[in-house]
From TrEMBL:
This is Calcium-binding EF hand family. It comes from Chlorella sorokiniana. Keywords: Calcium. Residues 9-44, 56-91 form the EF-hand domain. InterPro entries: EF-hand-dom_pair (IPR011992), EF_Hand_1_Ca_BS (IPR018247), EF_hand_dom (IPR002048). One of its GO terms (molecular function) is calcium ion binding.
Amino acid sequence: MVKLSKSQLVRQLAKKSFSECDLDKDGAIDAKELHVGLLLVYDKLNKSLPVHLQPPDHDTVQDLLRKYDADGTGHLDFEEFHECVRSVVGLNEKAKFTDSLPAMVLGRMALKMAIFPLAAVALKALLCQVHGAAEKVPNGALVFGVEGLYKVAKVKLQR
């Protein structure tokens, strides 16, 4: 069995996604095809990660196209797309760590494993002071509620 390095796995992921999203098979992808390609990358990543990562929105894809279009054609060839994917998964030295896959996974896991549960415990303590029956509410239900409120607030703030 051949063991592939991280960079080889990312290259294979990029190659497969690029071939699937290059609909007209001209060897270059435009903004729409880039968006599809990144959705494919995120879909494959989300199947193997312990948390779900939100794929980039249309504006972010436009920014990525401008950033990685080295030759200024308005399209990405495979090597440009590969660099874009490398930045998404945190293997591109030029990319900011905060935009990388490890940073996104760590952030999501910190929310799910520490921040939401701590907020739920604080909420339960507050509710117990107001109404004694609140101590019967399961912690898991409160964590679920805190996470739901976070998601609603995030959507509202993005608008």
